[in-house]
Design brief:
Largest sheet: 8 strands, mixed
Number of domains: 2
CATH class of the largest domain: Alpha Beta
Strand content: 15-25%
CATH topology of the largest domain: Aminopeptidase
Number of helices: 11
Structural class: alpha/beta
CATH superfamily of the largest domain: Zn peptidases
Radius of gyration: 24 Å
Oligomer: single chain
Distance between the termini: 26 Å
Helix content: 25-40%
Order of helices and strands: HHHEEEHEHHEEEEEHEEEHEEHEHEH
Strand order of the largest sheet: 1-2-4-3-5-16-6-15
Shape: elongated
């Protein structure tokens, strides 16, 4: 691997920063302490700081030379509303809050790159360090855009990185085009007519209607959508009734829809609505159909992905780069950035969990799990990738 020596020398301090953030997790739009830590470190290294975009977001600005070119690097900062089961010293000190997705590591890696870029300045142009709040369901990327991120900090491209458990430690992976799915949810209420369970003819049973709707929806995947298109429609909750001898007035269907393209998403939403309304009408019932589009598909741009692949190879070696990783049906709000600007989002392998200190939980080291912990050996690798990307994208004049 071609890692940046000053960053390697700074690794222990980066680990301290990362573990401090892990011990003090903050949920979306509550990242005040985290933002204070980030802003203080940037200021300590002489980097101008702008705060307040996306409420708790932080943007650092490093300029060098005379070039008007600029790129953005993004790290997310928020934690998850879940209980950590690890008991090592840097485990969460806030019950019900945990860095179970590695955003503490993402923030530390970008801070490591920021320190080196500010000190060495082996590039010509501007680097915008985007520390984003509220990735976990809060659409912090969209909020920063609405607050004028790209107008105030004009950049030609933006890049992001996420750790990925199960991939070998320090390997880098990406794919051009769709890499992560859209995230959407539905809340459907079937309104029937309650009755005594011994006299069902006197009512309109919303449970049986909901069952008909649930079964019909799966035909959208198998009969309406092209077999070449990918989509998932999962009903994850059914709520109805309160007694064994009562047919309730209503039944609820709740779940998620994931797609890699907007046209397929349009198809699913429209067909789900039509089937629900017509099936309910066929039984003299009514339906309330709510479909919420949370995050769009994350689609990497071809040119920026090719560029990122070459940087990846330069840092970790060609044998440690997968440039055609299988896309995941998970979602990421970095997708909002990629709708506005060219860019690329990559994965850095977090390993299988062998890195965890004594006192970790017995669960697997996977994302959104109470036994998860970020792999600190990635800190100089991810930071070195950011430095190499900047110095290659914004080269000094020869």
């Amino acid at each position: 691997m071609k890692l940046v020596e000053p960053i390697i020398a700074f690794q222990s301090e980066l680990q301290q920063i990362r573990r401090d953030l892990h011990a003090h997790p903050e949920l979306c739009y509550e990242e005040r302490r985290t933002s204070d830590v980030v802003a203080a470190k940037l200021a300590e290294w002489g980097i101008p700081v702008v705060r307040g975009l996306g409420l708790t977001g932080v943007v650092g600005v490093i300029k060098n030379g005379t070039s008007e070119r600029a790129i953005g690097l993004r790290a997310d900062m928020d934690a998850l509303p879940m209980q950590e089961v690890n008991t090592f010293p840097h485990a969460s000190r806030h019950p019900g809050k945990m860095h179970a997705c590695g955003h503490d590591g993402h923030t530390a890696m970008l801070l490591g790159a920021a320190r080196h870029l500010a000190r060495q300045r082996d590039f010509d142009g501007t680097v915008y360090l985007v520390f984003q709040p509220a990735e976990e369901g809060g659409a912090g990327a969209r909020r920063m855009i609405e607050d004028g991120l790209f107008e105030r900090f004009p950049m030609e491209a933006i890049y992001g990185m996420h750790n990925w458990p199960g991939l070998a430690t320090g390997t880098l992976s990406v794919t051009a085009g769709p890499m992560m799915a859209s995230s959407n949810e539905f809340h459907v209420t079937v309104r029937g007519k309650g009755a005594h369970a011994a006299q069902p003819h006197n009512g309109i049973d919303p449970i049986m209607i909901a069952i008909q709707i649930a079964q019909a929806w799966q035909t959208i995947i198998t009969r309406n959508k092209s077999p070449l298109d990918t989509a998932v429609l999962s009903i994850t909750q059914i709520h109805a009734g309160s007694a064994t001898n009562v047919i309730p007035d209503e039944a609820k269907l709740i779940g998620t829809v994931r797609t890699f393209t907007t046209p397929v998403l349009d198809l699913l939403e429209n067909r789900m609505r039509a089937l629900a309304e017509h099936i309910a009408a066929g039984f003299d019932a009514e339906v309330d159909f709510v479909f919420k589009r949370n995050y769009p598909p994350l689609v990497n741009h071809e040119k920026e992905t090719r560029f990122a692949v070459e940087v990846m190879k330069a840092v970790v070696g060609e044998g440690n780069v997968n440039e055609r990783i299988e896309p995941t049906m998970g979602a990421e709000d970095f997708a909002f950035f990629l709708q506005e600007k060219p860019g690329c989002y990559i994965f850095i392998g977090n390993g299988e969990g062998e890195h965890r200190d004594g006192g970790h939980g017995l669960g697997p080291c996977v994302l959104h799990n109470g036994s998860y912990d970020f792999n600190d050996t990635l800190l100089p690798i991810g930071a070195s990738f950011w430095v190499e990307l900047v110095e290659t994208a914004l080269p000094l004049a020869k």
